[in-house]
Design brief:
The chain is α/β, with parallel strands linked by helices. It contains 13 helices and twelve strands. The protein has a six-stranded parallel sheet with strand order 2-1-3-4-5-6, with helices on both faces. Strands 9-8-7-10-11-12 form a six-stranded parallel sheet, sandwiched between helices. It is elongated and about 65 Å long.
């Protein structure tokens, strides 16, 4: 007799709330790692995306191991979670942002935040997973006296897999490709400084091209070295950076509580694609990046270009760093390293 197929339902919060492309959380924090575990252990499990209450009803009579949901405060998601609990289906709830914070720099997000619905969703969840230890600490402070019972809390960091294990060789004549990705774009208080830094990089003779993804720098749009790429669904984005073989990637995070929930996604993306990253010395990179060993780190924006310039001047030096990062990534940061976080959940629900 063929065993009955088991389903894992993943709620895509962006498709529900904003009718937009699949969220990064859903793809990277659920679909990639769960899919890899299912493949590795040859499990008779199928992952399905749930975009509305009607989708959920389709699978209600099937064997469902658990429902996965990323943090949200949408009433339709609340309804799905309520139906899950009525059907005795466990709920795993992922939190990767400090959405409850009153930080003025995130006022727009704060206006949308519905604490009542959010807490109701938490109460219906069996396991809460967090992107970072710091975010869990902030959550524990905020949630105190708001909710009495949370059955289980876990830290499940983000890892990516790399299809590209080749260590590239740069020579003295190599022309470099640089990329800066930011879903938020450049904050107004730092915009001019960042634009000047990017201009210095673009004008460096060893730089062939400079890409921004998700935003455009208008003052550079006529520069033949500069290319602005529109924001794209996360799967296409990963394919894009994988196929373009960037040499240097830039990551600048806001130094506020919101960033404390950020896992080191850019380090993982860049390292997986054999790209050297340059990061500001703030969480999550402060304790992860050893300057000159597994990336380039700067403390102030004014230090970014001086720290990067020696690697632009000498591609061989950049190559040495690139190869060390690749080896370090393949050893410590691939999806295989995430099995230990998810396997106990699979065992708990007898998969």
């Amino acid at each position: 007799m063929i065993p009955k197929k088991t389903y894992i339902l993943v709620i895509d919060r962006l498709s529900i709330s904003n009718k937009s492309n699949q969220s990064t959380s859903v793809f990277i924090r659920f679909l990639l790692p769960l899919g890899e575990i299912i493949k590795k252990y040859n499990l008779n499990i199928q992952i399905e995306i749930v975009k509305n209450i009607q989708d959920f009803q389709v699978y209600k009579e099937k064997k469902i191991a658990f429902v996965c949901c990323s943090r949200n405060w949408d009433n339709e998601i609340l309804n799905i979670l309520e139906l899950s609990k009525k059907s005795n289906i466990p709920v795993i709830y992922d939190i990767d942002d400090c959405v409850w914070d009153k930080n003025p720099s995130w006022l727009k997000l704060r206006k949308e935040f519905n604490q009542e619905v959010f807490i109701s969703q938490l109460k219906l969840s069996d396991i809460l997973i967090f992107s970072t230890e710091k975010l869990l600490s902030l959550f524990n402070i905020w949630i105190k006296d708001k909710i009495k019972v949370i059955q289980e809390k876990k830290i499940v960091p983000i890892y990516l897999t790399s299809n590209n294990k080749i260590l590239y060789k740069l020579n003295e004549d190599s022309k470099l490709k640089v990329v800066y990705t930011s879903r938020q774009g450049i904050k107004s208080d730092k915009k001019k400084n960042v634009e000047n830094i990017i201009l210095d990089i673009v004008n460096h003779p060893k730089v062939r091209s400079f890409y921004t993804i998700g935003f455009c720098i208008s003052s550079l749009k006529n520069n033949i070295k500069y290319k602005s790429i529109s924001e794209m669904p996360v799967k296409k984005y990963l394919e894009f950076i994988n196929s373009n073989q960037f040499d240097i990637g830039i990551s600048i995070l806001q130094e506020d509580k919101y960033s404390l929930g950020k896992a080191p996604i850019k380090y993982i993306e860049y390292s997986a694609m054999n790209t050297v990253g340059i990061y500001n010395s703030y969480h999550p990179y402060k304790d992860l990046i050893i300057d000159g060993k597994n990336g380039i780190c700067f403390s102030e924006l004014s230090n970014l270009y001086p720290k990067l310039k020696p690697y632009l001047d000498n591609p061989t030096k950049l190559n040495d760093l690139k190869n060390f990062i690749k080896i370090d990534y393949l050893k410590n940061m691939t999806l295989e390293n995430q099995y230990q976080y998810w396997v106990p959940i699979f065992e708990k629900y007898k998969l």
